[in-house]
Each structure stands twice: as structure tokens, then as C-alpha cells.
Write a structure and sequence with these properties.
Layout: E1 7-9, H1 26-33, H2 41-51, H3 63-69, E2 77-82, H4 91-98, H5 100-114, E3 118-123, H6 126-137, E4 144-149, H7 159-166, E5 190-194, H8 195-212, E6 223-230, E7 236-241, H9 246-252, E8 260-262, E9 268-270, E10 287-290, H10 297-310, H11 317-335, H12 338-350, H13 359-373, H14 375-384
Helix pairs in contact: 2-3, 2-8, 4-5, 4-6, 5-8, 10-11, 10-13, 11-12, 11-13
């Protein structure tokens, strides 16, 4: 697993600027980034639209559209979603731990522009939460800023589940797909995004659209944070320009040849990486996992499938029964049961679009792409009862269960 200290930069350091010397306290933060500009709501909207800024969570929703959807008044809160519950991702907790003031600049600056009543930072990592609380004490923002501890379960990081938890309820998606911009915290309009989004907003506010656009893609300029893990020599968090070739990143971190998972455990497997550039929404949550060639791909997928099924909140059939059935199907595939492939295909067709949240859909996407990309391995397991490789646990799973 990666640690907070494993960071590197390709090109210009922006959100990771200065952290090579450790955590940035307020004075070092100002010396590195300069003072935050005081912007209006219209300024944030225009800047976000000019550079095509998207949220840096899994949905990659355009920030300008989210701002435009908010009413002109009565905004309850700006919520920073630091409940980074994807087992691989480390980028958000790294920012909260080492560059908390950049995140606070983005959140507090936007809250002032929106005239929101408060800023709430939801965190489930103890180190990150302590760093943010220390940072708040170093500042004098004269705005209510609260750090709220949240559960670490996978689905608890979903926006609506997070809002329920902040209100004192269970950290479960309510099933109703109402946008936080309309009914968010305490059913009042709320701007909610993940940690990196606010750090990027702070950089954008300082650089302006022209300076922000000096690197990266024309369609969505700037930099992005990626978490790299698996069969690589240099795992960790890396900042790159948007649009950097995936092969260049894999070579930079010393990835072993083999399949690559893009987007984490709600992402998809890639049959090849030639010519693919890293941009949103393709890169999704900013996770790249190299599998290598020494481990059994199907065995690795089954380990992750078991964990994904264990993260069900028990609210809907596609999650409770669908994911459970798929675990059985894939386990039978590994054992060489010919009927298992047909059962898996049937169950994969029944899961998407019917759940109370995105967890069943994302899990099904991960498993369906595995059947496609590992087709040769499936045939070997069905013909020979195995592929001749052990399961080495290359894909990180909480608890390390095999």
C-alpha cells in the first residue's frame, strides 16, 4: 500500500508544490502559493467554465454547471468530501495531511463568494483530520469551519450518504437521487465536491484562467493527481498535466508489463494502453493499478469482488443479491465451471441501473471489463481448471483477504 510520503511530479508542481519538505503550515503555505484572491461567485463560475474544470471525484461533473445550479441565496454549506474510501486512492488524504491550507483556501473562498453559512470538511482518516484541525487554528477566516469524522466504508463516501452522516443519520445513500445543489445538508442548497477539487479551485483563483491553462489539455487544462499502485516500483501519488500519455506515467513509475485497471474498483480494465491519454472523465477517481503478469488475474478479481460485495449497505436487491451472485459466479470461473461464464453474463445484465446508489453499477463495470480483457485467462481456467499462476494479492484489499 502507498504511504503519504510517496509523492512525485511530472512537469510543474501546483497542488503538490512545497510538500517535498513536509506539511505546509500557514506561513510556508503563503510563501509557496501566495495570498488567496477574494473572488465573487461570478468569478468562480467564469474561471471554472473557462478552463473546463471538472470535479476530481469519480463523477467528474463540471464545476461551473454545479455553481450555476445553486440558487442565488440561502446556501447552507460548502462541503469538502474527504471520505476517501476507495481502498487504493491516497490523493485526497495526502492533500489534507500535507497541504490543508490549499484545500481550506478553495473551500472558504468559495463559501464566502456563495455567502454560505459554513464550511464542513468530512474526513475519516485520523491523520488528515488532525492536520486540518491544526490548520484551522492557524488561520483567522471568521467563517464557521467544522471538521466532521465520518465512517470509512466504501459507500459512505457517496455524496448523499455523506450528507446523511453529517446530519447525524446513517452513512447510507437514501435512494432518492436529488442533487445536493437543490437539497443538500439539512435539505438546503449545498456545494459539495471532493478534496482535490477545492485545491484546484485555490490554484485557479491565484493563477487565473490564462496561467492555469499554461499546462495540460486545451479542453481541460491544468494538472491532476493520480494514485499509482500495484505492480510498480514507485507507488504513490503523482501530479501530472492533464492529457499526459498513460504509457509515460507507467514507464515513469516503473510498472511491470501487463493489464492496467483505470479508475479503481468502480473503473475498468484496459486491454492495452497504447495512445491513451489521462483525462476526465476517463481517468475517473484518478487511480491507476498495474497488475503485472505473475499473478492470476481472475483470482485477483475474485478477491476484489468479495470485498465489493462486503461493502453493500443492504438496501437493494442488485447490491445484496446481484453482487453476491457475481462473487459465486467468478469463484466458479476460477475453479473451471463452464456454466459460470453464462451465469456471470446473465447477472451482469441484471445489476446496472437498478441500485439505490452507484455501487452496483460500478462493481458490475469492473467485473464486466474483467471478463472482456481476461478472456484468454477465462478460457484457460475453463479448459484446464487454472492458469498456472498463484494469486499474489497485487490488488490492494482492506484486510488483505485472499
Amino acid at each position: 500500500m502507498t504511504t503519504l510520503q510517496e509523492t512525485t511530479v511530472i512537469g510543474e508542481a501546483r497542488v503538490l508544490a512545497g510538500i517535498d519538505q513536509g506539511r505546509l503550515d500557514y506561513q510556508r503555505h503563503l510563501g509557496t502559493h501566495g495570498a488567496q484572491r477574494d473572488l465573487t461567485r461570478a468569478d468562480y463560475t467564469e474561471l471554472s467554465e473557462a478552463v473546463g474544470l471538472r470535479g476530481r471525484g469519480g463523477a467528474a461533473f463540471p464545476v461551473a454547471l454545479k455553481l450555476k445550479d445553486l440558487p442565488t441565496r440561502g446556501i447552507e454549506a460548502v462541503v469538502v468530501n474527504g471520505s476517501e474510501s476507495e481502498p487504493v486512492s491516497r490523493k485526497d488524504r495526502l492533500l489534507l495531511s500535507l497541504a490543508p491550507h490549499l484545500v481550506l483556501d478553495g473551500a472558504i473562498g468559495l463559501a464566502r463568494a456563495l455567502k454560505a453559512r459554513q464550511v464542513v470538511i468530512a474526513v475519516h482518516d485520523a491523520v488528515a483530520a488532525r492536520s486540518v484541525r491544526e490548520a484551522i487554528l492557524e488561520r483567522d477566516d471568521r467563517l464557521a469551519v467544522e471538521v466532521s469524522d465520518t465512517p470509512g466504508r466504501f459507500v459512505a463516501g457517496e455524496a448523499r450518504a455523506l450528507l446523511r452522516a453529517l446530519e447525524g443519520g446513517p452513512a447510507l445513500p437514501p435512494g432518492r437521487r436529488v442533487l445536493p445543489t437543490r437539497k443538500g445538508l439539512y435539505r438546503r442548497p449545498t456545494f459539495l465536491s471532493n478534496v482535490e477539487t477545492f485545491a484546484q479551485l485555490a490554484v485557479l483563483a491565484r493563477l487565473g484562467s490564462r496561467g492555469f491553462s499554461s499546462t495540460g489539455l486545451i479542453s481541460e487544462p491544468g494538472t491532476q493527481l493520480l494514485t499509482i499502485d500495484g505492480a510498480v516500483r514507485r507507488p504513490g501519488v503523482i501530479e501530472t498535466p492533464t492529457g499526459v500519455p498513460l504509457d509515460a506515467v507507467l514507464q515513469y513509475v516503473g510498472a511491470e508489463p501487463g493489464p492496467v485497471l483505470l479508475g479503481g474498483y468502480h473503473g475498468r480494465w484496459l486491454p492495452k494502453t497504447d495512445g491513451l491519454t489521462l483525462q476526465r472523465p476517463e481517468v475517473s477517481a484518478g487511480i491507476i493499478l498495474a497488475l503485472g503478469s505473475d499473478t492470476c488475474p481472475l483470482g485477483e478479481v475474485v478477491r476484489v469482488a468479495r470485498w465489493l460485495a462486503s461493502q453493500s449497505t443492504g438496501q437493494c436487491g442488485p447490491c445484496v443479491f446481484g453482487l453476491g451472485s457475481l462473487v459465486v459466479d467468478f469463484d466458479r470461473l476460477v475453479q473451471g465451471d463452464p456454466q459460470a461464464w453464462y451465469d456471470a453474463q446473465r447477472h451482469l445484465g441484471l445489476v446496472p441501473g437498478r441500485g439505490a446508489c452507484a455501487h452496483p453499477d460500478g462493481s458490475a463495470r469492473f467485473l464486466a471489463s474483467a471478463l472482456d480483457v481476461f478472456e484468454d485467462d477465462v478460457r484457460r481456467h475453463l479448459a484446464e481448471g487454472g492458469c498456472g499462476r498463484l494469486v499474489h494479492g497485487v490488488l490492494p484489499v482492506p484486510g488483505g483477504a485472499r
